[in-house]
């Protein structure tokens, strides 16, 4: 059994755990709002909300969410990022089960058909995708990061993220102030949100893959992790991952 199989399995478990944790976090916020409404004693205003950490579902959810991310981080050391990133779509499949059992939401035929296509795509991906995961030295990684094509791509993507993040904030503020249901902004906001979260999330995965590569190199060849490149990857990873978690919490 190749190492990519181990990486794919760990990633699948991690992705499902992330989705389960996210649903538990959402459940915690729903319970918080519900208790606030019940405690209002029939008045129109709501009482001050309790801290979210008081709710058991939220505490369990954050632990499961962190565990899933740790598993995904470990999986990057065993399989190609192109394979693992696509396998992350299994969250859409698991979300159907969690939505049905946790939130009692009905599953439509369209959702089932879309899920079937996701499963089919993952089968093709695992069968014919890249199964190689070479280990690069810090010098090789630094050379790839300094490639002019990659740098131009990063600049363009940062520019796009900045624009759509501004659009999202502006639309969110306009809807909050006006209180009206603007069809234009209702369509543009989810699109802008997806662009920003997807781009930032992909960068965090890239930096996580690089860190996982360095850890794998350290365990196999005795590479010393305390170098400028390692610290740079750590800074970039925590910056992008922190920003990604922040915008995910706003969903």
UniProtKB/TrEMBL annotation:
Q: What is its main location?
A: membrane
The record's section on SUPFAM superfamilies has:
Multidrug resistance efflux transporter EmrE
Alphabetical list of Pfam families matching this protein = Mg_trans_NIPA (PF05653)
Q: How does it sit in the membrane?
A: Multi-pass membrane protein
Task: Reply yes or no: does the keyword Oxidoreductase apply.
Answer: no
Q: Which GO terms describe its cellular component?
A: early endosome; plasma membrane
The record describes the protein's role as:
Acts as a Mg(2+) transporter. Can also transport other divalent cations such as Fe(2+), Sr(2+), Ba(2+), Mn(2+) and Co(2+) but to a much less extent than Mg(2+).
Q: Which family does it belong to?
A: Belongs to the NIPA (TC 2.A.7) family.
Protein name stated in the entry: Probable magnesium transporter
Q: Which organism is it from?
A: Citrus sinensis (Sweet orange)
